[in-house]
Design brief:
- This protein is of the alpha+beta class.
- It has one domain: 3-Layer(aba) Sandwich (Glutaredoxin), CATH 3.40.30.
- The protein is built from three helices and four strands, in the order E-H-E-H-E-E-H.
- The longest helix has 15 residues, at 13-27.
- It has helices at 13-27, 45-48, 75-82, and strands at 3-8, 32-37, 56-60, 66-70.
């Protein structure tokens, strides 16, 4: 199973545009996911994944490897990446 992390900030325009797409796709899938506000991150995940730009989506595979996608993803692209 894939875990999906979305890094964002409240002030980020592209993040606001991407949020409904991300939320819709995640609600229709059976993957574990988390939204992480980089300005309020107390988990250390933003540092762990070296977040330098947002929105950033990180896909963590079962074997612990991860891939990053920078920017707003289309609904189709996001669905493709979580399969």
């Amino acid at each position: 199973m894939i875990k999906v992390l979305k890094f964002y900030a409240d002030w980020c325009g592209p993040c606001k545009t991407y949020a409904p797409v991300f939320d819709k796709v995640m609600s229709e899938s059976n993957v574990e996911y988390e939204n992480i506000n980089v300005d309020k991150d107390t988990t250390g995940l933003a540092a762990k994944y070296k977040v330098r730009s947002i929105p950033l989506t990180v896909f963590i595979n079962e074997d612990g490897t991860s891939t990053k996608e920078l920017g707003s993803l289309s609904e189709e692209k996001l669905k493709q990446l979580i399969k």
